[in-house]
């Protein structure tokens, strides 16, 4: 219904007179429960090393990772996405280590869940940490082969579920993989393993620092992932991807990156009644962090960016800033 609004009966500034009033009528609220912290755990490594292109983000040996997770939980964060950094000697053309039982990631997941049973642990399904060419799938006749890759992703998923991951998150963008993984999980009695599909993952330049972090950028070289990740020009196609993944058995869908794709988040949340997450990726984090460290931007831009993502419709956000923002919003 259209209501006639007129100054001075209506003065929108009445509700902006102080912070308590502003908070009282705020439409969006970001809490620590909306945040998921990604963490990099490095194989055959003891210690921690800062990732050059990601200020304040480290690759941890498993022991140091456990300390860091304790700190993350202390900050109020209860969900974590784990990414393995694999020794280059253990990478090969087919990403064989991904499907080895008791591989590095399985051992890490087991240890983390043993020490922190209540933590919601999200494990990535994709081959790029394990392949010597840096692609998310295996290459057959020069092409990242969809169906052959799916077979491997199923095995990888079962290993991650068996290790104790609460949520497994296929980030590879192969067609049909959600349905196949769901079917395999059901048949192997992993009925409660949650599938978080990177349903609308765009072929983005914002992943650069992440690829440095896991050491896949030099392997990938000039090669692009555009034959499987989405064209950044398409929104209808993102909805199409999400519809397929819901039909195939996804519990949660995700949009990635976040800030340049707020319209996609909004449309998905509007169109489907399903939990919708957003991934504020490495490049988004780094550009803000670098500007903050130079004093070019106020540190408040990080929180502002996350509230924007939440307002667009995201139910939860993966962000490298999860721990620091959790502390910041609780100390307010
Ligand atoms: C690959 C994967 C990527 C990210 C998460 N999983 C990079 C890629 O697609 O090359 C990116 C995350 C980030 O940039 O923070 N399976």
Supply database-style keywords.
17% strand, 12 helices, 332 residues, eight-stranded parallel beta barrel, alpha/beta, two-stranded antiparallel sheet, 39% helix, globular, binds ligand PBG, TIM Barrel
Description:
- The protein has a single domain (31-331), classed as Aldolase class I (TIM Barrel).
- The two termini are 38 Å apart.
- With 332 residues, the chain is α/β, with parallel strands linked by helices.
- It is 39% helix and 17% strand.
- The protein contains twelve helices and twelve strands.
- The longest helix has 18 residues, at 146-163.
- Percent range for helical residues? 25-40%
| Domain module count | 1
Low-confidence stretches: none
Overall shape: it is globular
Structural class: alpha/beta
Distance between the termini: 38 Å
Order of helices and strands: HEEEHEHEEEHEHEHHHEHEHHEH
CATH topology-level name: TIM Barrel
Main beta-sheet annotation: 8 strands, parallel, barrel
Mean of pLDDT: 97
Beta-strand portion reads: 15-25%
Number of helices: 12
Can you list the strand order of the major beta sheet?
1-4-5-8-9-10-11-12
C-alpha Rg (nearest Å)? 21 Å
Cofactors and ligands present?
Answer: ligand PBG
Q: Report the CATH architecture.
A: Alpha-Beta Barrel
Quickly name the level 1 CATH class. Alpha Beta
Work out the oligomeric state of the chains in this entry: single chain
CATH superfamily: Aldolase class I
What's the β-strand tally? 12
How do the helices and strands line up, and which of them pair or pack?
Blueprint (H helix, E strand, L loop, with lengths): L18 H6 L10 E8 L5 E3 L7 E3 L1 H13 L4 E7 L18 H12 L4 E6 L13 E2 L2 E2 L1 H18 L3 E4 L6 H11 L6 E8 L6 H6 L3 H4 L15 H13 L3 E5 L5 H10 L4 E5 L1 H13 L5 H13 L3 E4 L2 H9 L2
Helix pairs in contact: 3-4, 4-5, 9-11
The protein binds ligand PBG.
